[in-house]
Amino acid sequence: MAKTRTRLAELDPVWTRINREAEEAVQNEPLLGGLVHACILHHGSLEAALAYRMAQKLASGEMSEQLVREIADEAYRADPTIGESARADIVAVFERDPACNRFIQPLLFFKGFQAVQAYRVGNHLWRNGRKDLAYFVQMRVSEMFGVDIHPAATIGKGIMIDHAHSIVIGETAVVGDNVSMLHSVTLGGTGKDEEDRHPKIGDGVLIGAGAKVLGNIKVGCCSRIAAGSVVLQEVPPATTVAGVPAKIVGEAGCDQPSMSMDQTLKPGS
Q1: What is the pLDDT of residue 7?
Q2: In what order do the strands lie in the sheet with 180-181?
Q3: Burial level of 35, CB count in 10 A (0-12/13-18/19+)?
Q4: d(C-alpha 149, C-alpha 171), whole Å
Q5: Spatial separation of the C-alpha atoms in residues 228 and 221, rounded to whole Å
Q6: Domain containing residue 71
Q7: In CATH, what number is assigned to the domain containing residue 106?
Q8: End-to-end CA distance of the chain
C-alpha cells in the first residue's frame, strides 16, 4: 500500500494532496465527514470527484444527478486535457487567493472554480456538436453560481476567478493561460454582430472587480485592468489601464500581474 501511495503521489501530486487534506479535514471536523467522503475520499481520481461534485450542483428536476455525472465522466475520459486544466486551476487558486490555504477548498467550496470546471465540460460538448446539452450546462451554471460562460468561449488553464459573482464571458471570447479575474467582470460584445465580437485576453492578465472589456479587442499578455474600468480599445502587453473609458496609466508593475494579484495603482505602474 505504501508503494502504491508513493507511486500515486509521483503520478498525480495534486490528487494525492487533496486526499491527504481531506483526511485531515474529517479528523478536524467530523460533522463534514459525509461531505468530504462523498466528494473526495470515495473517488479514485480527481476527474471522478469533479464529475460527482458537478452532478451534485447542476442536477435538477430536468436532469438527474446520474445523467449529469455520466455526461461529465464521458467528457473527462474523452479529453484528458480537461482534468489537466482542472489541476492547473486548483494550483492557481491556491497560489493567488489569500483566502485559500488548502487544495480541497476550490473543489468543495469555491463557486468560481466549480463554474469553470463545468464550463470545461460544456465546452467539450460544444466542440463535439452537442450544443443543446452544452447550453443546458451553461444554463445550470448560471442559475447555480451566478456565472455565465458561453460554452463556445475559449479559456486556457491556470484560471483563477475570485468570488465569481456576476462573471460574464461571451461566445467568441478567448482567455489565455494563467489569467486572474475578480467578481463582476464582463468580457462582452458590442452591437448585434454575430461574428467574432468578444475580447481576446492574453496570458497572465489580471482583471479587476467590475471591469468590462467590450468588443473584439486584444488585451496584451501580462497587463492589468483596474477595477471598474470599461475597456473599449486594445491594451498593449505589460501595461495598466484604468478609467471609463480605460486609458493607459502606466506599466503593469511586475512580470506576472495575475500571479501577484497587486491591484494598486502607483505613479508609473
Answers
A1: 53
A2: 160-161, 180-181, 206-207, 224-225, 239-242, 247-251
A3: middle
A4: 8
A5: 20
A6: 9-145
A7: 1.10.3130.10
A8: 53
Per-residue confidence (pLDDT) for residue 5, from 0 to 100? 47
Q: CA-based diameter of the chain, in Å?
A: 60
Give the Å distances, CA to CA, from 44 to 38, 67, 244.
Answer: 12, 20, 49
Q: What is the pTM (predicted TM-score) of this model?
A: 0.92
Residue 137 is predicted with a pLDDT of 98
Which residue carries 492578465 as its cell? Answer: 205
141, 17: one domain: yes
Domain boundary among 126, 145, 164: 145
Which three-class secondary structure string do you get for 228-257? CCEECCCECCCEEEECCCCEEEEECCCCCH
Q: Averaged in consecutive runs of 10 residues, what is the pLDDT profile of the chain (269 residues)?
A: 50 94 97 97 97 97 97 98 98 96 98 98 98 98 97 98 96 98 95 87 97 97 97 97 96 87 70
Q: Cell 486609458 maps to which residue?
A: 247
- For residue 191, what pLDDT is reported? 76
Are 141 and 16 in a shared domain? yes
| Same domain membership, residue 109 and residue 21 | yes
CB 110 within 8 A of CB 93: yes
Looking at the fold, whether 173 and 262 belong to one and the same domain comes out as yes
DSSP state of 204: T
The separation between CA 243 and the C-alpha centre of its own chain, rounded to angstroms, equals 26
For residue 32, what is its C-alpha cell? 463534514
DSSP three-state, residue 264: coil
31 and 129 inside one domain: yes
Q: For cell 461529465, name the residue.
A: 72
Q: What is the Cα–Cα distance from 108 to 45, expressed in whole angstroms? A: 15
Query: Any idea what the CATH number is for the domain that residue 207 is in?
Result: 2.160.10.10
